[in-house]
UniProtKB/TrEMBL annotation:
UniProt-listed Enzyme Commission number(s): 1.2.1.88
Stretches that traverse the bilayer: 76-99
Top-level taxon of the source organism: Bacteria
UniProt KW NAD keyword: yes
Functional pathway: Amino-acid degradation; L-proline degradation into L-glutamate; L-glutamate from L-proline: step 2/2
Keywords, sorted A to Z: Membrane, NAD, Oxidoreductase, Transmembrane, Transmembrane helix
Species of the source: Streptomyces iconiensis
Entry protein name: L-glutamate gamma-semialdehyde dehydrogenase
Entries under PROSITE patterns matching the protein: ALDEHYDE_DEHYDR_CYS
Amino acid sequence: MTTVASYRHAGSEARRTAALRAVREHLANDPEPVRRVLCEISTHRAAGYEIEAAIATLDGAQAEVDKYRPRQLDQLAVYMPSNVLLYSYVLYLLVPSLYSSRVAFRPSSRVGSQTARLHEILAPVHGLPVDLTGVSQRAFLRDHVHSADAVIFTGAYHNAEQIRSQLFPGQLLLYFGGGVNPFVVHPGADLAHTARDAVTIRVHNSGQDCLGPDLFCVHEDLMAGFTAALLDELALLRYGSYDDPEADYGPLVYDGAMEEAIQFLARNRQRIVHGGRVDLGESRMEPTIVVGEEVTARTQVPEFFAPVFHVVPYRDPHRLAATLTTGQFTEKAMGSSVYGDAPELAAALSRRTTVTVNTSLLSIDDGNAPFGGHGRMANYVTDGHEMWAEPLLVSKAVAEHAPEAGAR
């Protein structure tokens, strides 16, 4: 394994590039210590996905920085999310360390222990000035955020807005949130393939992932066929513990998300066509299909961090396109998937979101490329003067929007 000592006397840029390469080799050759930490809050399969995504992102890190040429930051402050810990560690800490003199990060209180142990494993490998601070939010704001050139926050929109209100003009804030991520099934779709993709992305990490679709819009002529295909796929799923390599889903670890999903199921109990059973003692929720009414701009679409399939019919693709590009869908515009022959619908959605056609958002996940949409509650970057709701990549945002040194 490459160690810090092997590149101690190299130049700073070469040393940091070597540090990322050392982490990459460590994850590829000895992933089990990291996997054990991840499997405390993620399924074994989701942990494997994270490790693969982290390795791929580290492989592309130098090319990403060479492409966008972000300016050098003196300090970056990062509020870490409560899921996808390894992937976030690479995306928000390691890759930005190539152009940040120092990175300070604060774990989410929900997963503070797991984040600290992940850092304990990887910090000796990279030896970079990436520092975990276990202080209170107030102290982190005072001691690290206020002096940072750029701040990264992943989580709830209202929490991001609270942080934004306390920053100084000239400080860059990158907000990574979530979206409705509508999953559209139109005539021409291969229903077996579509249902398989739907189950894979909605049940990924037991539904606890921001890419999971919160709304499945199915053409009314396909409702029966798609639901039947979903049932076929769900029948194949296996429940198990997070360290079980054969388990497709496991217990939920985020109490608030489970409570919100239960409330939705209780309000819509008459519309449940599959599943709906919950074991509170085990924090287990069965994958559940709820069939609702056609969505309108006024329809309230909850964000699920649980394996809930909220399926609604539609007839007119033009009307659906108009609905999914207005109101709350505009504010929460992040990603969309369109299955079937609907080029005009896909084109309309692409003006607001990242769109996939006949494949899911998981298939295009690329840690070295911008991702997201043009919804402010989904993602934005601001310098305290202007705000841009756009697909985000940290290096690109720093290159395009960070003020010049000394501008603050």
